[in-house]
From TrEMBL:
The chain crosses the membrane at residues 52-70, 77-96, 116-133, 145-162, 168-186, 193-210, 284-305, 317-344, 350-374. It is found in: Membrane. InterPro entries: Cell_cycle_FtsW-rel_CS, FtsW/RodA. It comes from Bacillus kandeliae. This is Probable peptidoglycan glycosyltransferase FtsW.
Amino acid sequence: MWKKILKSYDYSLIAVFILLCLFGLTMVYSASSVVAVQKYEVASDYFYNRQKIFLIISMVFFIAAAAFPYKAYRNSKFLFISLFGILAVLILLLFFGKTTNNAQSWFSLGGLSIQPAEFAKLVIIIYMSAVYAKKQKYINSFNKGVIPPIVFLVLICMVIAAQPDFGTAFIIFLIGCTIIVSSGMKFKSMWKLIVLGLMIAVLLSPMLIWKKDRIFTEEKISRFTGYLDPFEHREGHGYQVVNSYLAIGSGGVTGSGLGQSVQKLGYLPEPHTDFIMAVIAEELGVFGVIFVIGGLSFIVLKGIYTAIKCKDPFGSMMAVGISSMIAIQSGINLGGVCGLIPITGVTLPFISYGGTSLMLLSISMGILVNISMFNRFESFYKE
């Protein structure tokens, strides 16, 4: 039995995931070595060593999630504890959270900073997938099948947006939308949902005006002005985007060589997090960019393929949710680096520095690998 289970794992998916994580660790060292000394006044390998610890912990989580049967997540007690637990933590952050980059969305644990909103992504994926899988018989019943999970989705998004962290809230909302689309719901029910959403947006518009000073802060407005005309604001709001352009443009096809980036020498404020792709493009050129985008695309497409092949609605929707999370986050990060969308502070999956994000993604990948394993096992040995 165990031999059959081990043979059923998709080792190509596992290999690409590990390669991206190791490549990200290398690039974190390259991108952060100067900024660690100049800006944070720590050793040049400070962020590299921390990311290495995060990666080891994340690999343990990945192995555990890959070995644990995904169907157990459908347990009602687990769903209740995880959903209300993450909601309670997010509410507590509004009062006791640590503020970083003008968002009160962190808390310290043993010297490490944890961002619970990252784990809210996976909680929403599991919860909505479980509920819509259970409601398949009346998925088009607006009151019974459609509304209940969306209430929790909107509530969690609102709490995260109140921190304020609009980037994460927007990603979670989009992830929820992809699960709704893949739930088997008819277009008529979705259309009713869209109309209801527009009505709620209109009703909440006075709150936007009331809280405009907190929501539309100078920093948030600056992201739009810098996006619309970065060269006009190259000494201010467009500074990051302009230097990102310079990094990408100077990299060319082959790049300047690993560790040879100029823009990381104090020009890109956060070269190891939001703008790590700009450093990759400058040092490794088109080949480095193709490697990262190709690896991310492979994981996303494998996830979608797993969802299509999965006969269990719960597993299928979870695979869609995990794939969409990686795709959406990657698209938003790359769009900001290229100046196609305003900068949101969203990191690049598996590549950027960040312990919470890496742990969440590793657990998610473990679940996706487990779903794929069950699909292959049932196809090969039970037909």
